[in-house]
Amino acid sequence: MTSDRGETDRLLAGQADRALGQGLHLAGVVQTNTPRPKSHHCDMDVQVLPDGPVIRISQDLGPNARGCALDPAALERAVQAVAPTVTERTDLLIVNKFGKHESEGRGFREIIAQALELGVPVIVGLNAANAAAFEDFTGGMATAVPCRREAVQEWLDTSLAARRSAA
């Protein structure tokens, strides 16, 4: 979790690249935001990991719109693309954000739960608005990791080592 706009997305995309470079089997999505001229919104695209399609999850509501630009149908397409990739062979699930949809029981929520049931480490971006719902969902079992490359890598190395030991 970070307060800097887009920082979590960049951190997770970098972590996905490093994990792929390590030969890990990834599932999930990472997000890229592209500023939209004359709008306070940006275009939000997610790439299905490891090498799946890029899906635009935002919709253009017009230059004066202030509401959420998320396209729920597009988000669900991303969820459906990720679902079959979470298996016992998955080393890491990355989800760009536990957002409003997840806090309401939709979005990537079931995939996160499935990964955890399989013992797959999960990295999830989070914003303060959904922190209470995330805490309820995880039952307090989540580990807050500082939004720094080294801290995330250390958490992942520790999680993978623990998973190997349990096997």
How would you describe this protein?
The model has no long low-confidence stretch (mean pLDDT 89). Helices cover 39% and strands 19% of the residues. The chain contains six helices and five strands; from the N terminus they run αβββαβααβαα. It is an alpha/beta fold. A hairpin with a 5-residue loop joins β2 and β3.
Write the layout of secondary structure elements.
Elements: H1 7-21, E1 26-35, E2 42-48, E3 54-56, H2 72-82, E4 92-98, H3 100-103, H4 109-117, E5 122-126, H5 131-138, H6 149-166
Parallel strand pairs: 1-4, 4-5
Antiparallel strand pairs: 1-2, 2-3
Can you tell me the overall shape? Answer: globular
Helix amount, in percent? 25-40%
Termini distance? 30 Å
Radius of gyration: 16 Å
Helix-and-strand structural type: alpha/beta
- Which sequence of strands runs across the widest sheet? 3-2-1-4-5
Tally of DSSP β-strands: 5
Strand content: 15-25%
Give the uncertain stretches in residue-range form: none
Tally of helical runs: 6
Order of helices and strands: HEEEHEHHEHH
What is the residue-mean pLDDT, rounded to a whole number? Answer: 89
For the sheet with most strands, the description reads:
5 strands, mixed
